[in-house]
Here is the input.
Amino acid sequence: MSPDIRVSVIGHGSIGRTVADRLFSGAMPGVTLVSIVDSAPVTNAPVPQVDLDKAIEISDVLIECAGQSVVFDHAEAILGAGRGLVISSAGALSDPAFVARLQACPGRMLCTTGAVGGLDLLGAASDAAPFDSVAVQTTKLPGSLVQSWMSEERADEVRSTQSALTVFEGGAEEASRLFPRSLNVATAVSFAVSDRDLVQVKLIADPAATLTRHEVIARGPVGNYQFTLENLPSPENPRTSAIVPFAVLRTLGVLLGRTGLIG
Ligand SMILES: NC(=O)c1ccc[n+]([C@@H]2O[C@H](COP(=O)([O-])OP(=O)(O)OC[C@H]3O[C@@H](n4cnc5c(N)ncnc54)[C@H](O)[C@@H]3O)[C@@H](O)[C@H]2O)c1
Here is the structure.
């Protein structure tokens, strides 16, 4: 019998906690959760909290659920050591030179689809012929869109808006840089259509947005696609949709070659 795949989770927050709990409770046969990495002390982890070097040493696959900086600072070391890496913070991969360096490493990385779907269809259509236009419009609760780089006045305006307010319009790369924890979806769509310059992003703060809404509209030579995804925010972190940890677990399954009848 082949030994279990050893997995560590980086970031024990709203995504990482659910991922770790599920793996610990045996949700994925043949996979053993061996450690948690977090820059803050974790009191309720089901397995030991270790530093990243130790996690790389004892794991076959690491799952990033922490933020873009972990990808910037540590993805090369993880993949360079031949470990697999599941990435939640897809927005960290907007620099093609960085991505090329990571892809040259012996370890395999895969970004989760996270809060968005339909990427298989967009990918297939873009393989057939490049899209003419792709737009992603994301609507979230205002409080989750306030950023540290905003002026106090702008932050107040966003936080206290009583109606839908556009906080950003532009390209996917700029979107993920300015809203690093909120616009991984736009990056995921840009990966699916293999063109990071094509995707136009609009981000709306709406106090009525009890569900986080992503509208994807793509038009091209083989078809026009328009779909709306509405996700319940995570109860612990309104920036994150509750679906994301489950998408991360499916991505782990894909990385490990455990696909179902469709994939
Ligand atoms: N792909 C998607 O659709 C999607 C959706 C939501 C969030 N995300 C990404 O996932 C990340 C995590 O989301 P979350 O809701 O779980 O966040 P969270 O804030 O609830 O948890 C993040 C955890 O990571 C830890 N952490 C932060 N920096 C770290 C570091 N340098 N090293 C180790 N641990 C570190 C924090 O202490 C915290 O425990 C977000 O920052 C975002 O980039 C992706």
Notes: Residues 5-114+243-255 form a domain with the Rossmann fold fold (CATH 3.40.50.720).
